[in-house]
Design brief:
Elements: E1 5-12, E2 16-24, E3 30-39, E4 43-44, E5 47-48, H1 51-69, E6 75-80, E7 86-95, E8 101-102, H2 105-115, E9 124-136, E10 149-150, E11 152-163, H3 164-176, E12 183-186, H4 187-195, H5 198-203, E13 205-210, E14 215-221, E15 224-231, H6 246-265, E16 271-275, H7 284-292, E17 296-298, H8 310-315, H9 317-352
Parallel strand pairs: 1-6, 6-12, 13-16, 16-17
Antiparallel strand pairs: 1-2, 2-3, 4-5, 7-11, 8-10, 9-11, 13-14, 14-15
Helix pairs in contact: 1-3, 4-9
Length: 353
C-alpha cells in the first residue's frame, strides 16, 4: 500500500472562489475532508484583473480549509480558464528500427515530445499534452502500443496552451496568499474528471460550463479531451427570461455550431453535460435540448466521498475535479513507472544474456 497524501484544488472563478481538500488513503480511495467558498473579487472573464482583491479572496478560502484540516493542505493545484486558453491538434513521428523492434514507454514519451513541439509565440506556454492515440507503421490509431513491434511510431496530441502572463499571475496570487502552486489545470480537464463517466468520454460528449462571465465548451471523444472553445458570455450577460435573451441565443447557437463542426471533422458527440451557475436555472436543460437537439443532463460530481452534499458536489465540481484529476494522473504515472522499471530489467537481461 502507498503512503497517504493530501491534495487541495482551488477554483478561481469570476463569481466565487472555491477550494476542496482531499485525502488519498493507503487503499487509494479519495475522500473530501474540507471545502470552502467565498465571493470572488478581482477576477473577470476567467482572468485576474485586480491582484490584491483576488489575493484577499483566495486567502479567505485557504484560511477556511486550514481550520478544518489542522493546516494540512498538501499539494495545491489551481484551475485556469479564460479566452486565452487555446487547443490545437498536432502529430509527431519517430523512427524505431529499420526492421522493427518492441515499442517501449520511453519511445512513447519521445514521440509525445516530438508531437508537442509546435510553434508558440513567446508569450504562450503549454499546460497540457493530451494524447489522442498512437500509430505503428501503417496500422490505425491504438491506445497502448507497448510491446508491439514497429519500425515507426506516431502519435496525435491535443496541445492546450495559455498566456504565460496569465499563468504567472495565478502563481503570484496564490503565492502572496501564503502557499505554493504545484500546477495549473485547465478547468475543462478538471470538470471532465469530476463530472463525466468513462463510457461517455469514449462515445463522445460535450461538457458545457456556463459560468458567471464565460462559457466553456470541452468536447471529449475516444477517451480524452479533443476540442475546446471558450466564449465571453455568462450569467451576468443574460438578463430577464433567457429564452428571449439575445446573448443567450448567440451562446447556444455558437455551441451548436462548434459541436457540429467537431462532428464533421473529428468524431461523434452523443450527449451533452451542463454545469456552472446557469445550469441551475429552471427549464434551461429542456430549452437547450430543443434548440441544440442533443440529450442533456445536469453535471453532478461522481463518486464523491466525504464532507460534500449532493448540491455541493454540483457547485464545487471544478475544485473536486482538480483533486480527482491529480489523483487519477498519479495513479496512471505509478503504472507507467512500473512498466518502465520492467522494461529496464528486460533490457539489462537482454544485454547480459
Amino acid at each position: 500500500m502507498k503512503r497517504p497524501y493530501v491534495i487541495t484544488g482551488v477554483d478561481i472563478g469570476s463569481h466565487k472562489i472555491a477550494g476542496v481538500t482531499a485525502k488519498v488513503a493507503r487503499d487509494g480511495i479519495l475522500e473530501i475532508v474540507a471545502q470552502a467558498s467565498v465571493p470572488s473579487q478581482g477576477v473577470s472573464r476567467g482572468v485576474l484583473v485586480d491582484l490584491n482583491a483576488a489575493i484577499s479572496s483566495v486567502s479567505k478560502v485557504f484560511d477556511k480549509l486550514k481550520s478544518k484540516t489542522h493546516g494540512r493542505l498538501g499539494d495545491i493545484y489551481v484551475n485556469i480558464s479564460g479566452e486565452d486558453v487555446k487547443g490545437t491538434m498536432s502529430t509527431g513521428m519517430i523512427p524505431l528500427a529499420l526492421r522493427g523492434r518492441e515499442v517501449t514507454a520511453s519511445d512513447m514519451a519521445r514521440c509525445l515530445d516530438v508531437a508537442s513541439t509546435i510553434y508558440l509565440p513567446f508569450d504562450r506556454e503549454i499546460i497540457h499534452k493530451v494524447v489522442q492515440g498512437y500509430s505503428i507503421d501503417d496500422q490505425p490509431w491504438i491506445n497502448d502500443p507497448i510491446g508491439l513491434y514497429a519500425a515507426r511510431l506516431a502519435c496525435e496530441v491535443f496541445v492546450i496552451t495559455a498566456n504565460a502572463n496569465h499563468i504567472q499571475s495565478i502563481y503570484k496570487c496564490v503565492d502572496n496568499a501564503g502557499h505554493d502552486v504545484k500546477g495549473v489545470i485547465f478547468s475543462g480537464m478538471a470538470d471532465g474528471a469530476s463530472l463525466l463517466e468513462k463510457q461517455d468520454i469514449e462515445k463522445g460528449v460535450g461538457l458545457i460550463d456556463m459560468g458567471s462571465s464565460i462559457t466553456e465548451l470541452s468536447i471529449f471523444s475516444g477517451g480524452s479531451l479533443a476540442a475546446l472553445d471558450i466564449m465571453p458570455i455568462g450569467a451576468q450577460d443574460i438578463t430577464g427570461d433567457f429564452r428571449d435573451n439575445v446573448a443567450f441565443r448567440t451562446l447556444y447557437e455558437t455551441i451548436d455550431s462548434r459541436i457540429k463542426d467537431f462532428g464533421k471533422a473529428c468524431g461523434k458527440v452523443s450527449s451533452l453535460v451542463l454545469t456552472g451557475g446557469l445550469a441551475f436555472t429552471d427549464g434551461i436543460i429542456e430549452f437547450l435540448e430543443e434548440k441544440i437537439a442533443y440529450p442533456i443532463k445536469m453535471g453532478i460530481a461522481r463518486e464523491v466521498r466525504g464532507e460534500v452534499s449532493g448540491l455541493d458536489s454540483a457547485r464545487l465540481s471544478t475544485a473536486i475535479g482538480l483533486v480527482r484529476y491529480i489523483h487519477e494522473k498519479r495513479a496512471a504515472e505509478d503504472v507507467s513507472l512500473t512498466k518502465r522499471l520492467t522494461e529496464k530489467v528486460v533490457e539489462l537481461f537482454n544485454n547480459y544474456f
